[in-house]
Specification:
about 150 residues, alpha/beta, Rossmann fold, four-stranded parallel sheet, 4 strands, globular, binds 4-nitrophenyl phosphate
């Protein structure tokens, strides 16, 4: 079976999408899924994930300190099979960048995997407290279970 390439996308690529990347990598059987993440903005290129995301992942036994922020680029539409946006703003940004219909079809809202058609956002925890990160982790954990059920 061909390896499936999954890209997680948020705004900064330091809070939500690094958690989503770490969780999906942790759950996926080795060798069957390639997972990466990116931000729609250029705000945090080259940076480690936010220390609150690092701490939250660590609490659940996942190390995300190998990750560094990068910006989404148009060639990601060729490199990835599934592109998951964390919220509707990221989703609109990605759809607007898609060069063709096939690329546009790769873009999904990640919580649509858990709540189909409800168009729910993963809330941006950047300006909040640690509880927000735990809440985000739990949402993404559920979503990653559904993603693996779908693709494996
Ligand atoms: P993320 O959170 O999109 O989940 O990585 C944010 C990180 C940084 C900023 C906004 C959201 N920022 O404005 O710098």
């Amino acid at each position: 079976m061909a390896k499936i390439n999954v890209l997680m996308v948020c705004l900064g690529n330091i809070c939500r999408s690094p958690l989503a990347e770490g969780i999906l990598k942790h759950k996926a059987p080795s060798g069957e899924v390639f997972v990466d993440s990116a931000g729609t903005s250029n705000y945090h290129i080259g940076e480690l994930p936010d220390q609150r995301s690092v701490a939250t992942a660590r609490k659940y036994g996942i190390d995300i300190t190998d990750q560094r922020g990068r910006q989404f680029k148009t060639s990601d539409f060729d490199a990835f099979d599934l592109i998951y946006a964390m919220d509707q703003s990221n989703y609109q940004h990605l759809v607007a960048m898609a060069p063709d219909e096939a690329s546009r079809q790769k873009v999904h809202l990640i919580l649509d995997e858990v709540y189909p058609g409800e168009r729910m956002d993963v809330p941006d925890p950047y300006y909040g407290g640690d509880m927000g990160f735990d809440n985000v982790f739990k949402m993404l954990d559920q979503a990653c279970d559904r993603i693996l059920e779908k693709i494996l």
